[in-house]
């Protein structure tokens, strides 16, 4: 097809053909009705993408997320009670040890202990050396004694991070938009 000035109308690097365009229109002019089926929901995932779920899947996901949140909250409450108990025990140990060593050793006691320690080291030099090598080897294999309070605090921190992620997922499921 040509324009009044004589140039050819181009469509996708080929000349425009009105007969071909009309044929295409006749093939595709039928109206398409709505597609029947269950409505779908679009949910934003934590990774930034979107996921399409059916109504049943959405309900299942919401129930699973709620169940998981409750389980994590229960575990967090248990860990908090264990932490309080461990802190109480640690505090009792600390007060007990401070009561036992209420008076500091005198200079005479210190020098007496030093003399006895020197005699023991001189007498048991070989036994001390082998004992130190054994403890060094065991220390490499086994981690150092970890304070139970610190261990519980790290568990609680990790559990709180997991709870944040699960709650975010539950909120995303609650904010799902319906597609038609």
Description of the molecule:
The structure is a single chain. The protein is elongated, with a radius of gyration of 38 Å. Helix content is 66%, strand content 9%. Helix 2 (55-100) packs antiparallel against helix 5 (148-174). The protein is mainly α and 180 residues long. The chain starts with 9 loop residues before the first strand and ends with a strand. It contains five helices and five strands; from the N terminus they run E-E-H-E-E-H-H-H-H-E. The protein has a three-stranded antiparallel beta sheet. It has a two-stranded antiparallel ribbon with strand order 1-2. Among the domains are: 1-30, no CATH class; 40-98 and 147-180. The protein has helices spanning 18-28, 55-100, 107-123, 125-141, 148-174; strands at 10-11, 14-15, 40-44, 50-54, 177-179.
Strand arrangement, largest sheet? 4-3-5
Question: How many individual helices?
Answer: 5
C-alpha end-to-end distance: 41 Å
Counting DSSP E segments of at least 2 residues, the number of strands comes to 5
Order of helices and strands: EEHEEHHHHE
Question: What is the 3D shape?
Answer: elongated
* Radius of gyration using CA atoms only: 38 Å
Strand content: 5-15%
Specify the helix fraction band.
55-70%
Flag low-confidence runs.
Answer: none
Mean pLDDT: 83
Structural class: mainly alpha
Q: Which assembly state applies to the chains in this document? A: single chain
Largest sheet: 3 strands, antiparallel
């Amino acid at each position: 097809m040509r324009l009044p000035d004589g140039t050819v109308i181009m469509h996708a690097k080929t000349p425009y053909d009105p007969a071909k365009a009309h044929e295409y229109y006749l093939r595709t002019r039928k109206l398409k009705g709505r597609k029947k089926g269950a409505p779908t929901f679009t949910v934003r995932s934590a990774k930034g993408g979107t996921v399409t779920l059916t109504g049943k899947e959405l309900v299942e996901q919401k129930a699973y997320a709620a169940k998981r949140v409750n389980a994590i909250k229960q575990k967090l409450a248990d860990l908090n009670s264990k932490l309080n108990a461990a802190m109480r025990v640690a505090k009792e140990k600390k007060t007990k040890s401070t009561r036992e060593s209420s008076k500091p050793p005198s200079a005479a006691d210190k020098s007496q202990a030093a003399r006895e320690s020197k005699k023991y080291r001189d007498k048991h030099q070989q036994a001390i050396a082998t004992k130190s090598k054994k403890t060094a080897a065991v220390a490499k294999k086994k981690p150092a004694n970890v304070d139970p309070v610190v261990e519980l605090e790290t568990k609680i921190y990790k559990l709180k991070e997991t709870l944040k992620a699960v709650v975010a997922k539950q909120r995303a499921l609650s904010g799902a938009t319906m597609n038609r």
